[in-house]
Amino acid sequence: MSKSPSNRTAELSRQTRETKIRAAINLDGNGEADCETGVGFFDHMLDLLARHSLIDLRIHAEGDLQVDDHHTVEDVGIVLGQALDQALADKRGIYRYGWAIVPMDESLAQVAIDLSGRPAFVFNVPFKGERIGKFAVELVEEFFKALATSAKLNLHISVPYGSNNHHIAEAIFKAAAKALRQAVSLDPRNPGVPSTKGSLKG
Has this prediction a pTM greater than 0.70? Predict the structure, then answer.
């Protein structure tokens, strides 16, 4: 049964030997965030993702942080992607595509999204150095790759220039949020599935 456009929500959990994740999403929210992953910088980025997409996010994660942050960040991406896919249901009435160019001081991020039902991911980001505080910059790519794969979306992220790792990451999350907001929004001119195939299930 198709999900009503008035109830575009999902709540999921996932538990492995490495992580325990609970996530809830409301596509038609106000940008409220309750994100506790044990990784401070990542929580900050998830707050930005919620605020600028106007998607309500509730994410609680327990992970093997004594090993490193990798499993927690990647698994949050997996669960959040699954929740996004579930909340979108058959994707009837959405814009489907979204894109944004967002500056953050000296850095610029470009993000394009297609909720196509076919996962694809391109990440062209030249970070400067390996860390933002204690956070490994490679985990930005791991998060979005997991999100794109689990949500079955086509996601392209590019940073043509930037010199501060924190600014680069923040620009990426804000641009992803704005692109996602556009893609999941309901199109009043097209109540059907926005595809010539009649389906966006892949």
Answer: yes
Instruction: List, in order of start, the domains of the chain with CATH numbers.
Output: 9-184 (3.30.230.40)
Supply 188's token pair.
């009043």
pLDDT, tens digit (0-9, with 9 covering 90-100), for 58-67 = 999 999 998 8
CA distance between the termini of the chain: 18
Concatenated DSSP letters of 63-83: E-TTT-SHHHHHHHHHHHHHH
Asked if residues 112 and 178 have their Cβ atoms less than 8 Å apart, the reply is no
Please compute the mean of the pLDDT values over residues 106-111 and round it to a whole number: 98
Residue whose entry in the numeric block shows the structure tokens 């990798």: 70
Distance, in Å, from the CA atom of 188 to the CA atom of 170, rounded to the nearest integer, reads: 31
Instruction: State how beta strands 154-161 and 120-124 pair.
Output: parallel
- The tokens describing 149, both together, are 């794969």
Q: What is the mean pLDDT of residues 114-131?
A: 95
Name 66's Cβ contacts closer than 8 Å, sequence gap at least 6: none
